[in-house]
């Protein structure tokens, strides 16, 4: 009985850890930025190694890729993405893990 309870407890802990990892893809940034050539994403948390891509954003659609930055699994602090100059007033940051978009954030550029 003790072995069964120990096995169940370990299974629950492992299951909880897997759920927490899958829910840990986030951006910690301001939704308003002041530069069209550099986006400061703050802390980016990725469940696995991945990539942040920043696209022009107009009429609810992703446009041209403006910049990208590789991130590692876990918390990545002070993440900054250099952008190709554009005249856009909105961009969207997309966090990709294993080629799948796991987090998105629309950012308004206030000049």
TrEMBL record:
Signal peptide: 1-23
Keywords assigned by UniProt, alphabetized: Signal
The protein's name in its UniProt record: Uncharacterized protein
